[in-house]
Hints:
Blueprint: E1 2-4, H1 22-45, E2 52-54, H2 63-72
Parallel strand pairs: 1-2
Amino acid sequence: MFVDGRFWHDRPLHATRPKSNSAFWQTKLARNRARDRFVTRSLRAQGWRVLRIWEHELANKNESRLLSRLRRYGLVS
């Protein structure tokens, strides 16, 4: 299981982008997204089940949705 932050992993609906040095950050965050996809594909190819949880999903208001996802993965009963 991975818990990803919306900034470093450039979550489309929730990410914030720095206003200064924007070209650097755009490239950096694109590489992070590409690496995340590569890691997920690689782990799945090796038989791993990958569950990515976004930091905002840990908020109390999202508890029931997160628990549902964890149940589907057999991580909680």
